[in-house]
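Exercise 7. Given the components listed, write out the predicted structure of the assembled complex. Treat all entries as one system.
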Amino acid sequence: MSLGPELTLYIVYLLDDQAYLTKIVKALFLSDYISKKILNHRISGIRWIKHLYGPWSYEVHTALDLLRNLGYVNEVATSSLLSLVGLPVARRFRVKKLGRAAVERYVRKLLTQREDSIVRCVCGRLRKFKLEQVLRLVYVLPEVRYARSGEEIRILPHPDTLLNEVRSCLREMGLDAVGGIDELEEKVNEIPALIERGLLPEHPTWEKYIELRGLVGMARELYRVLDMLSSIFNLAF
Amino acid sequence: MESILILIRDLLLDLLDRSTLTKFVENVGSLYERNTLKVFFRGGITLIVRHAGDSYAVVIHGVDCEEMVKWDNAPHHRDLSSFPHHVHEGGLVKESSKRFTVDTLAEDLLQVLMRLRKYVLKSTQDS
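Answer.
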């Protein structure tokens, strides 16, 4: 299996209105590895988790934290993701780490199974490690929190695509930038001063400026995610 | 999404009468619409909130997408005592008391929504 030309980060999230925490966001990733069947099984997946873990009285954590406990990711990558999702870095847990070969086998198993099986597989592994008290929930991008179950799936573009959009937009403003993300960000940050000096019109440049800041920020986050996924799965994006 | 935009989204969801909404959109649409909230109301009125860091633009669009009122802090009107905060309305640029910071957000949004409510009521009556 291979990934497509663009990373597609499937964010599958579920909400539980009756729950104390109200949200379950389940994110698993990687385009070609995960079929869309997960959508059809999300509800049953949630019920299964409930069955396993009982009432929602646990902290919200992240899937990457989960993966860290399974030995897939290091502290730095986990902190990056936690930072990305706006959650505090969770406390460490005393978890026996898997060996490298076992990790690889487990990951391959996860990636080749049906998505509803992945939920079971992850939960089963947690159970095995006696982490029932710590339900690790995936909480990838805050922007999807209010969407209802089944309404949307976000497929995020590759950060290079975002940066191309930034370049294109800057070019339209007469601000050529051919370098990487740092140069683009620098150019974007020049916009307010240019507006103030009357070299660019206030509108719609100001609105574009706000959006471009968002694009650059999103690209940075996605690069971090890509780095993290690369380190986990030894994949080249 | 910027954390302040999340706060705005939460406040809007708390403050808004859901029955007047037709759609609540966060950061979707074109790639450029990051850091953007869009709220569509009955009668064709739209509220668009863009916020990044300390930069903001809050605009109410009318039925034909015409800009009815817009608050922003583009550094473009030094003559105003509230610089860079100002409001565009009726083709004029005026001083604005709104700052859309974390501290003032609730009150500012409430005032925006009160203004918006008038437009929505008028628009639904007209239609």
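Discussion: The two ends of chain B are 35 Å apart (CA to CA). DSSP finds two helices and seven strands in chain B.
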